[in-house]
Amino acid sequence: MSNNDFEARIRGRFIKFPAVDGLTELELGSIVVQVEEKIKKIEEKLNIVDSSKLAILAAYDFAVELHNLRQKSETNNEADSRKVEELIEKLTKTLEEER
Questions:
Q1: Closest CA to 29 of 3, 51, 9
Q2: I need a labelling partner for 6 at 20 to 30 A (CA). Which of 15, 64, 78, 85 fits?
Q3: Is 31 inside any structural domain?
């Protein structure tokens, strides 16, 4: 384990996580709590006790959330770009009219 690795307990097991540039130990701890909560939620909802299956389902659920956030971000970026283009056109038109 390097000096920057992070160790945390998930489901009663200590797991060593590799360091992530730009994230503090507090932030990494928060992420671990989210993983733990996600696994618990899936376990309660689906009544599954198999740890590896729970981990896969939790990873899948996080991947779906990430996909949805990316889609939303792309949609917002496209809308922002259209709005900027509209404003540029209006400004250009206004400047041309003033000449």
A1: 9
A2: 64
A3: yes
Interatomic CA distance for residues 45 and 53, integer angstroms = 13
83-86, long-range: CB < 8 A, 24+ apart: none
Q: Are 57 and 48 in contact (CB under 8 A)?
A: yes
Tally of domains in the chain: 1
pLDDT in tens, 1-38: 456 788 999 988 999 998 899 999 899 999 999 999 99
The per-residue DSSP string of 35-63 comes to HHHHHHHHHHHHT---HHHHHHHHHHHHH
| pTM of the shown model | 0.71
Please indicate, yes or no, if residue 48 is contained in any of the structural domains.
yes
In a domain, 70, yes or no: yes
Which tokens hold the place of 28?
């990494």
